[in-house]
Every structure is written in C-alpha cells, then in structure tokens.
DNA sequence: TGTAATATCACATCATGATGTGATTGTGCG
DNA sequence: CGCACAATCACATCATGATGTGATATTACA
C-alpha cells in the first residue's frame, strides 16, 4: 500500500501533539502539514511539494471556522477528502459540514486507531462516521415519529399537489372538485399547521414536519 | 453486557446457515428468530416470548421486498432497530431503506465480525454503515459540482428570502429596496431558471438545483 | 340518535404574485 | 470609450392566493 499523505488543521496544542506523535509512528500515513487555522493551512500548502490527500479538520478554530473553511480547502485541493474531527455533534454542524463537502465526520472521542482506520477507509473511496453521528444522519432520513395526524388524507393529497407546484385551478382539475373546495381545504390546512402561505407549507413539507 | 436478541430475515439458505452458525457461537448475541420472508417473520414473532431487539434484513426476498417490509416490521416491533444486509448498493435502495426507518445498512460483503460489531453499535444507540455505503450517503449531501452561476449574488439573496417564506413586501423591507425592485429580480430569476411560480422556485432550492 | 369530523361547494373581498414595458445608475472589461 | 450586465425603480394589468362567512351531505362513533 502506498503512503497516504495527511494534513491536519487543529488548534488544540495537546491534540496536535498526540496526533503528530501517533502518525509519525505509522508507516502508512505521512502527515505533511499541521496548522492551527484554515488561513495558515492555505498559505502553507503553497510551499509544499507533496500535497495532502486527506485533511483532518476541526470546527472550533481561531479565525475561520472549519465548516466555513471546507469550500476554500476544496478549492485549493479539489482532490482532497476532508474528515471532520470535532467535539461538535449537533445535527446542524454535521449537516453543514457534509453539505459543504466533508466526506467523513468523527467525534473527538474517537480512538487514534479508529481515526487511522477512517483515514484508510476514506482513502479507498469509502467513508466512516462515528456511530453516534451515523445515527443522527440516518435519523434525518427516517420519518418523524410525529407522523402527526394534523392533516386528513384528503388534505395530504392537496398538500402533495401544492408542493408539486400546482395552482389551485390545476388541483381542482386533478382532484375533480371545485376551486372553492380546494380553497377551503387549504384554509383548513393552514389553520391546522398554523401557517399562512404556500411558501411555509412547502417548507414544512420538505422538512418533513407534517 | 446483557444479551442482544436478534431476528434475521434472509432467503438465501447458505447465508442463513453461516449467520446462524456464527451467532450461535457468540455469547453476546442470541438469534431468536430466522425467517425467509417478511410475511413468515411477522406471523412467527407472535409466538415468541422474547422479541428481537435488532433485525437483520435482506432486500431481495420471496414475497414482499425487505424495504416494503420495514414499516410493517416497525409497526409490530416499534422498539426494534433494523439493519439492512444486502447486495444492493444503489442510491435508491439505500435512500428508500433509510427513509422507511432502517437505521443501518451493510453490504453483504461485510465480514461476520463487522456485522457483529454493527449489531453492538446499533444496540448502543449508534449506527454503522459499510464504507462504500456511507460514502454514497455523504455524497447525497454534498454540493452539486454545477454550482451553477445561473443567479447573481443579489438574486440568491432574494431566493433565500422567498424560500424562507417571506412576501415581496417583507423582502423589500429586509433588503431596503422597493417592491418593484423585488418584482424585477424575481422576474429575472424566473427567466433564468425557466420557471414561473414561487412553488417551483422553492422546490428547486430544496432540491439543490440552483 | 345525535354530534363531531370530513369533504364538498358558493360568494365576496382584499392582498399578493406574475408579467410586460420602460428607464436610470454604476461597475467592469476589452 | 462603449458595451454588457447587475441592480435599482415605476406603472399597469391580470391571475392567483388568502380569508371570512355560510351551507350541505356523508361517515363514524359514542
């Protein structure tokens, strides 16, 4: 197996040292750059001969946050894979990091052995998530338990049409009822969901809040 | 650690045997039911004393597909966690299984040791994905390469407000411009995106097609 | 049997959205 | 310099959406 080149952006001195020490002892992984901030990292890579294939990235950094740094890093190193290594495990951070282009997300509690495993997995074109984080991600797909019966079946049909971009007139046609009936349904839907515009309805629908 | 009770739905005789043999040798895991179809499984669990906490589920089954079976299984065993174990690794199967409520997804190539690990991880409230599958999932979050420059920065601001559920009037207020300016922007946005309603705009935005 | 919930329709009114035409200003680029 | 383009504003018009009030028929359940 060829050596994997690694970059690390991490502002905690202790974590830096422990990672450095560990990877120095690993023949398969070569840490080519260690920085305390995204800004530093971006200037430093310009003078490197061998660029990192994998970047371990913290979120809570001096200067720019790791999440905001992802697009910049990918811009400079389009082929690099980014692995988040952070204490933040809230849905929002995870979601934002993945959307920005990170391809793996590890809790800082992860053992060095597992971090190494994750690096190797990512290098092979896969991805590894900490179990707790993977669970949060799958939960974001799963249907809400509050499969709330806020809406009647008929109302859900109407919502489906609206979300599909249909006008009242088209809905009336599709469902073989009058426009006024559609209006009434929508009025009741708005009341049930405590909203008052199509935009909010579509948003709720996409966010699975029905 | 208390014993984990397991159910398996798998129609390949060989896989059944190899799983059975393996788990019989594991003190931590007790396979309480092995079926060849979702239908069989659902009738058989009625006569069980100890219900499975975890279900290993194949997709390609006689009768109902594993994916279609997920809601039925969760209905009977609301506390159970479902782990997919299948050769199907296409995005669509993965997406559908997770949306239906599966909480883990393993390739059939996964070693028995890793399957056991996955069961334990899931039992602790986490989730484990095969690396190749995890990668597909994260890719579904990542931004489209076609970060299309169809819209100007200002137009993107307007879209953000619309998607947020704001009316033209509110947008005009927020951005300190007149309603007519907002109208013009939206007109141009519609032209650029070849659409003609707010609903379609919000849809495109949520589907990352901007 | 009566009441609640659902689904249907009507009429009215005002707000908002969609679309067209036209104009001004500033910025950047070849 | 002149052109393209982004961003701003105005006026006009018609379609659509939001909201209220009221009514009828059906089903479902206590």
TrEMBL record, chains A, B:
Gene3D superfamilies: 3.40.50.2300. One of its GO terms (biological process) is phosphorelay signal transduction system. Keywords: DNA-binding, Phosphoprotein. Residues 5-123 form the Response regulatory domain. The modification 4-aspartylphosphate is found at residue 58. Residues 144-209 form the HTH luxR-type domain. CDD domains: LuxR_C_like (cd06170), REC_NarL-like (cd17535). It comes from the Bacteria. InterPro entries: CheY-like_superfamily, NreC/VraR/RcsB-like_REC, Sig_transdc_resp-reg_C-effctor, Sig_transdc_resp-reg_receiver, Tscrpt_reg_LuxR_C, WalR-like. Pfam families: GerE, Response_reg. This is DNA-binding response regulator, NarL/FixJ family, contains REC and HTH domains. One of its GO terms (molecular function) is DNA binding. PROSITE patterns: HTH_LUXR_2, RESPONSE_REGULATORY.
